[in-house]
């Protein structure tokens, strides 16, 4: 795709997000033909979004567990951006009107204490594990902002940050106190009823594999991760779609509890 087409596609995506209008398939000449083109558009989307979404503060990784790969129909990880305006503390009341169709996922989030820059690639799980400062129990907020996501195709979903709409974070747990992230047991509750459960090992065998994938993916594009950035490593459970009045609670053993409500 040429630069003009990339910008035009990004403008359509950002316009739909700002107006909370379900996104229809892009015009044929603006549709990314592969995921590499999708990431080019995503990069432009991030520049355009920063004006109203706040500073770019990190990444979410999607399709890192079998349950999510089966649900979305994409057998490999995909990345999207996280902005300051979408990051909330546990107990947040989220406005349903701010989303097209809001959903939540149960995640292990990490905040980096060290840079992971392209010159240091390729990254192993030992390398990325050493870069983590804190861990959090997290609710990823996702938004089904599409006329029909099942027909959009992975490249366009990537261009639009792969459903990303923010997160709710529990208290920070120092990396050394968090234990083996693969052994973390996670449970999602909606209005007190169990809605899903999984383990850290469901995320590519270990959440650090997801973090290493992201660092290597970014390095392949000449980008990197910076100290202070947040990474949502992928859902332990299938997405749970919510309606106003719902309350959600995620329990992640060793990382604590995180809660939010939809108003």
UniProtKB/TrEMBL annotation:
SUPFAM superfamilies: FAH. Coiled coil: none annotated. The keyword Lyase applies. The keyword Lyase applies. Residues 101-262 form the Fumarylacetoacetase-like C-terminal domain. Keywords: Lyase. InterPro entries: Fumarylacetoacetase-like_C, Fumarylacetoacetase_C_sf, Hydratase-Decarb/MhpD_sf. This is Hydratase. It comes from Bradyrhizobium aeschynomenes.
């Amino acid at each position: 795709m040429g630069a003009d087409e990339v910008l035009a596609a990004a403008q359509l995506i950002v316009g739909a997000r700002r107006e909370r209008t379900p996104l229809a398939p892009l015009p044929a000449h603006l549709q990314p033909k592969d995921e590499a083109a999708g990431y080019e558009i995503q990069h432009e989307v991030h520049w355009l979004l920063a004006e109203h979404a706040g500073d770019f503060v990190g990444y979410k990784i999607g399709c890192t567990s079998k349950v999510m790969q089966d649900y979305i129909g994409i057998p490999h990880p995909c990345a999207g951006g996280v902005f300051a305006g979408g990051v909330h503390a546990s107990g947040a009341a989220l406005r349903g009107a701010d989303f097209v169709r809001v959903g939540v996922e149960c995640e292990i989030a990490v905040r980096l204490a060290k840079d992971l820059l392209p010159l240091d690639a390729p990254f192993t799980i030992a390398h990325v594990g050493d870069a983590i400062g804190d861990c959090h129990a997290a609710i990823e907020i996702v938004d089904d902002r599409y006329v029909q996501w099942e027909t959009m195709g992975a490249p366009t979903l990537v261009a639009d940050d792969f459903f990303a709409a923010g997160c709710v974070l529990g208290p920070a747990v120092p990396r050394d106190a968090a234990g083996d992230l693969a052994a973390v047991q996670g449970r999602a509750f909606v209005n007190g009823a169990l809605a899903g459960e999984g383990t850290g090992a469901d995320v590519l065998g270990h959440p650090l594999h997801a973090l290493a994938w992201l660092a290597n993916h970014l390095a392949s594009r000449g980008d990197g991760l910076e100290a202070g950035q947040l990474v949502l490593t992928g859902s332990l459970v299938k997405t749970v779609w919510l309606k106003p009045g719902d309350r959600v609670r995620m329990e992640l053993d060793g990382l604590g509890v995180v809660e939010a409500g939809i108003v």
